[in-house]
What we know:
Enzyme class: hydrolase
Protein name: Adenosylhomocysteinase
Structural class: alpha+beta
Number of helices: 5
Domain Nudix hydrolase: 44-185
Strand content: 25-35%
Oligomer: single chain
Keywords: Hydrolase
EC number: 3.3.1.1
Amino acid sequence: MTNEKIRDQIANYHPFNEQEEHDQQELLWQIDHVQDLLTRNNRNAHFTASAWIVSPDRQKVLMAYHNIYQSFAWLGGHVDGDPDFKHVISKEITEESGLEDFKFVSDDIFSLEILTVDGHIKRGEYVSSHLHLNVTYLIEADPALPIRIKPDENSAIAWIDLKDLPNKINEPWFYKWIYQKLIQKAAEF
């Protein structure tokens, strides 16, 4: 059973657009009808947490060049049984980028997404296609702070100017449906 606090946060979330409205309803259905969404034991769908990490002026975003997807992408990861998604994303930010000094712009969920993950090889083993039931938090950090790669997951970490972002993303669906939404929401926040 998924933590009631998570369900309440998702139920009380105010969708930004049609994608979030539909994904919010599906997330709630998944929570109410599917077991083991907090771990990868559920191979069809499980929760992940992501960070949209922006500079204080909201003109840059911190992204990692993801080795599996061969594209710059936001930071985040599987919740692996931890119902404290803010704790999960804090850990993931530091693990994936080395960034240790950052702040949550809000304690609330910033964005909701259901993301398709194509089958791939990870650590020498095939992982079947599945869904990531994703919650995103808005994070702010200083681009002058030290960052580093995590070689087993990414081969670059960079602060990317928003105007350059379309040229850095090799996943058109992500840019159109997710990153553009996050850019717009962060500018209005």
